[in-house]
């Protein structure tokens, strides 16, 4: 009975990695867990069959994603249909878990081939494992509309190791995290190797019985078959740490330090209105709330007032006379030169989720000029239903109607070029990188987190956005309706509305703040390697690793068929 209990307990223990990885992100926020949470699973993939590895990695991934997406049911209390929310929650968790399973499967394939020579083992540790994980994260961030959420590098960045993202995006930080996990797995292999050999000998002598699935194509540990020289045992521990140190050190050279000589100042008033989501009616008239909030920054005379996503929708469509008059009223109340906020725009038969920048016209100061950015990266099943342009009946299923995608462009405020991202666009590193490549001087992220108010989504969301600063070497100005509002710099300097201490935020309550944001001068702007080259270098390496793993699998199948 005791043996049966211990056996069951050992099986349950294999799900601890998924729990530890979940704890790395809000609400627990034990950021450093990300550097060791996956080590047991990496050890498992190195020593067991691809099929077994896929199963365990997928189950841990599913556990992680169900936990990390536990904020999705919050939309039910805001008016969302519960059956669709629960279905979407489970389906998205299973889809994302497939990438975990794919890593386990392919990693096991690679290790099956790397077991016969130490130099192959070293390449698997230093290159194959980290590149394979980073490549799968890139695919998840791009395929099927993209879901760039909670990469390993997000927790690493918020742990204070964000500099490396200037070299290759948040995915370089994920590489660093896998290298640390892999190093721990290597140490565990060396420690456990004598015990595994003794256990195998006892099994061969009939002193111990173990259950072996006949379908497994690998029945013994691969590490046992790898002759690791004594001198090399420390190499596979030291080299990953040297790579991590080199990535972090090189990345820091691209993180700017703003001074009065290399930057200019932009004063901004950040207005967090906190109106409810589209399923609920506002409890107060918007002008009553805005009048009180704007009165707090009028003495500062900010250059620009920044509102959240959908803020102008409380007044009217962007471009309408009423919307323009509301913008004029807000600028007058705050002594600002311009106001930027999100809203809905209709052009002919197309509907756009847009950001509008109103400012005084340079030719006729009595008039307001309008610049519009239409959201490029739309949320599937939220802002559109795949195929709804071909089948118009599907458009009725989209919660906010079927939106159209816009074009990448910058907004110009008094000579300062602004790259604006709406809602989940701030998780799209490729899009934000292109804004920096186009010459953006600062990034403005506006979002409406009221759909998931009073949940962990609001804090998780800002965690996804902060790596964009070090990736592009540009400051971030962020306003979140029911979310996190503040300013974030590439070097990790933070000012969040609601508290002076790191990790404190004003959530689900109206508020406003004032900040003087350092904007890099043209002569001092830095183009990081990630801005220059994007994801191409990592994707090329990923394809090579993937071809290696797949080719080995096909060779095994061909060999078995010939036998």
Count of DSSP strands: 12
Give the % helix: 40-55%
Order of helices and strands: HHHHHHHHHHHEHEHEEEEEHEHHEEEEHH
Cα radius of gyration in angstroms: 26 Å
What does the model show?
- This protein is of the alpha/beta class.
- It folds into 2 domains: about 35-215 and about 230-255 and about 535-560, no CATH class; about 265-525, Carbon-nitrogen hydrolase (Nitrilase/N-carbamoyl-D-aminoacid amidohydrolase).
- It has helices at about 1-15, 15-25, 40-45, 50-70, 75, 80-115, 120-140, 150-155, 165-170, 170-205, 235-250, 285-295, 320-335, 430-435, 455-465, 465-470, 530-535, 535-560, and strands at about 265-270, 305, 340-345, 350-360, 370-375, 410-415, 415-420, 440-450, 475-480, 485-490, 495, 510-520.
- The strands form 2 sheets. A 6-stranded mixed beta sheet has the order 5-4-3-2-1-12, with helices on one face.
- Helix 6 runs antiparallel to helix 7, helix 6 packs across helix 18 and helix 10 runs antiparallel to helix 11 (about 235-250).
- Residues about 210-220 have low confidence and may be disordered.
What's the SSE blueprint?
Blueprint: H1 2-13, H2 16-23, H3 39-47, H4 50-68, H5 74-77, H6 82-114, H7 118-142, H8 152-157, H9 165-168, H10 170-204, H11 235-252, E1 263-272, H12 286-294, E2 304-306, H13 321-334, E3 338-347, E4 350-360, E5 368-374, E6 411-413, E7 416-422, H14 429-437, E8 442-448, H15 457-465, H16 467-472, E9 476-481, E10 486-488, E11 494-496, E12 511-520, H17 529-533, H18 536-562
